[in-house]
Amino acid sequence: MSAAPIEAVAIGASAGAVQALLHILPALPADMIVPILIVVHVPPDRANALVTLFQDRCRLRIKEAEDKEPIANGTVYFAPSDYHLLVEAERTLALSSDEAVNHSRPAIDVLFETAADAFGPALAAIIMTGANHDGADGVRAVADAGGTIIVEDPATAQVPTMPAAALAACPTAHIMPLNDILAYLVGLTAR
Q1: What backbone phi and psi angles, to 5 degrees, belong to 143?
Q2: Is 59 exposed, middle or buried (0-12, 13-18, 19+ CB in 10 A)?
Q3: How far apart are CA 182 and CA 179, in angstroms?
Q4: What secondary structure letter does DSSP report for 79?
């Protein structure tokens, strides 16, 4: 794991994401000190229901990311439907309607690459279940910036394609089942 203290966590998931996140987010403690930025592939033609799904189940503040919003600790930000979620150098959020990346908007690669630029070695990036290769380029960018890469174990992921692609791009990533990912995140609070 990174020697630098982790200041932000970025999570990317697609097919199977809701079940994976339901395993992790409600179990996180209220005193979580880092922000969590999440991209889940959601259909562009409907509102993102993830905030509504999670806000009553979690002790952390859950919200949809807003353009030019300063990133606050202890908050979980979901990318809105049909917008890329980016992190700017001054650690504010930005939304973009630029072209889809890996057939996705929001795209995990966009979040990971911009968060790596903003946080460098203080970023932990987590790839979970999903059915495409989004996030593979992003984990490489995070690794190049000195950040920590965690990949859900493809053997236990509901859909292993995305974790497998991330591992192919970053063979030094830490491979963990969901329970270990949860333990890692809880451990960030204790630091």
Answers
A1: -60, -45
A2: middle
A3: 5
A4: P
Asked if 134 is an active-site residue, the reply is yes
Encode 131-140: b = buried (16+ Cβ within 10 Å), e = exposed. ebbbbbbbbb
Looking at 2, 14, 23, 103, which residue is catalytic? Answer: 14
Question: Which one from 23, 41, 45, 97 is the annotated catalytic residue?
Answer: 41
Q: Is 41 a catalytic residue?
A: yes
Is position 103 annotated as part of the catalytic site? no
Instruction: Please give the residue that has the higher pLDDT: either 130 or 191.
Output: 130
Is residue 88 within 8 A of residue 111, CB to CB? The reply is no
Rounded CA gap, 168 and 81, in Å? Answer: 28
Which pair of structure tokens corresponds to residue 124?
């932990």
Exposed/middle/buried for residue 96 (C-beta within 10 Å: 0-12, 13-18, 19+): middle
Task: Write the secondary structure of 86-152 as one string of H (helix), E (strand) and C (coil).
Answer: EECCCCEEEEECCCCECCECCCHHHHHHHHHHHHHHHEEEEECCCCCCCCHHHHHHHHHCCCEEEEE
Candidate list 84, 109, 134, 137, residue with the active-site label: 134
- The string of pLDDT tens digits covering residues 81-138 is 999 999 999 999 999 999 999 889 999 999 999 999 999 999 999 999 999 999 999 9
Residues with Cβ within 8 Å of residue 19, at least 6 apart in sequence: 129, 158
Beta-carbon contacts of residue 184 (< 8 Å; ≥ 6 apart): 124, 150, 176
